[in-house]
Design brief:
Length: 132
């Protein structure tokens, strides 16, 4: 809630009379609340974007059979493993880094995390008008 203060000064016969009016505006904070949800939504999509890029690198590296002894490939495999691990059992998974294969569990993980980010962002912007 915000207040707007308006002062009116009346001068009569050399004397000054001051009248102060306070106006409370509930709608003034609505843009601020909308801005906060917009910022949080952008943070959610940034985090989801970083995660999706990491998983895309993993998918490409596994698809091309990247050598796990390489530092960067090892970093990608290690950093993305906790995010893909919940989906390993869907298609039957055996760890074979360095062998070219299609890792469908990584694609499922990417889809699930994108849907979660979409759901969170829609939840945060639910009360905001669609034209902003």
């Amino acid at each position: 809630m915000s207040e707007h203060v308006q002062e009116v000064r009346n001068v009569t016969n050399g004397e000054v009379a001051t009248k102060t009016t306070r106006v409370v505006d509930d709608e003034a904070d609505a843009p601020a609340r909308g801005q906060h949800s917009l910022i949080v939504t952008r943070i959610v999509w940034f985090i989801a974007g970083v995660l999706l890029v990491l998983l895309a690198f993993r998918f490409i590296f596994v698809l091309l059979g990247a050598n796990p002894a390489n530092g960067f490939a090892n970093f990608i495999y290690t950093a993305s493993h906790p995010f893909v691990a919940p989906f390993f059992g869907i298609f039957g998974y055996s760890i074979k880094y360095g062998v070219s294969r299609v890792e469908l569990s990584t694609l499922v993980a990417m889809a699930v995390y994108a849907l979660i980010a979409f759901g969170i962002s829609r939840l945060l912007t639910m009360g905001r008008p669609s034209n902003t």
